[in-house]
Amino acid sequence: MFHFKFRIVLFIGLYVITAGWNLKMENSPYILFKEEWKAEDPIIPPLRTQITDTTSTLTNAQKSSLTDTLIAFEKRKGSQIAVLIVGSTGDWAIEEYAVKVFETWKLGRKGIDDGILIVVAIQDHKTRIEVGYGLEGTIPDAIAKRIIEEFMIPRFREGNYFQGISDGIDKLILKIDGEELSKTGASASLSDINVDSPITEEDLRTVEQKDDSDKDILDKYIVFLAGLFFAIFAISIIIAVFIGSGIFGIIVLTGLVFFMVILSESTILGIGFLILWILFFSMLAYYLREKIMRPRSFWDYILFGRPHTRNSSSSRNGGISLDSSSSWSSSSSSSGSSWSGGGGSSGGGGASGSW
Length: 355
Known about the structure:
Layout: H1 2-25, E1 51-53, H2 60-77, E2 80-86, H3 94-105, E3 115-121, E4 126-132, H4 141-157, H5 161-177, H6 201-243, H7 246-264, H8 273-291, H9 298-304, E5 308-309, E6 320-321, E7 346-354
Parallel strand pairs: 1-2, 2-3
Antiparallel strand pairs: 3-4, 4-7, 5-6
Helix pairs in contact: 1-7, 1-8, 2-5, 4-5, 6-7, 7-9
């Protein structure tokens, strides 16, 4: 019974150590169950002009140039395009943050919803084009993604954020100019984007298929590794810790700490459900082991280690028993402009990219 209690203490000790280590490090890539905690409302700067730069990345001349372009476009077409540059979106994914900003700023004309928002998160190395309902047919997700990946991100990687944003705006304007926007809010039909490199339907399918393929491969790889580690260490724990030591004992000792790091991420009120299941089956296995004794062969000693002898006069087989030894908060620059959104809403469409 002493050995059994020692195993329970060992499990609890390793669990506490690994859980404490992860809390100290505050970031572990091994997550089985994780509840996301984030602020109820992200910090959204007020809308005063077409270009809102909370990071002072753009110079005044660059902001003035982009603003003039967007004002001229709005007077000519009626659609609104706004740009927001932040350091980070914090706990919010850039897609969620862009929707929140779009809904707060109400870009586009009311009833037509022909607004577009470009969000650039410098520190996160992420960008997003959020498209209103009235422009989803003109700028579908695949077109927005093509603009981001081919015209914006290459400039961002060079550190030229002004040129990347400028190129993205130019391509969006060229695309919208190729369509007659509906005055009732109905979506326009899809046409080829008017850029230097024409986009065909085959190109769009290729982009979508590539993204899906990459994601599928990554998902399968992660699932395979997780299953492999779980199988190896689960079997090792059951055989080595609760039957004996030997070769299986070495396997479990080298893998137990890593396995516990994974399990320590699965916590509710500080207790991992998988740990509880392991402890339950551990006690069950120990009980069965004590009830069912069997002679040991040479390979039993090699694989599971040396047993210890228990002195008991009532033991029919000499009292042989198996022993197991161990086991974003930047402020927006004030401006005298009173430009505001026209009451439009986001359609949830668009695309994101990172660099």
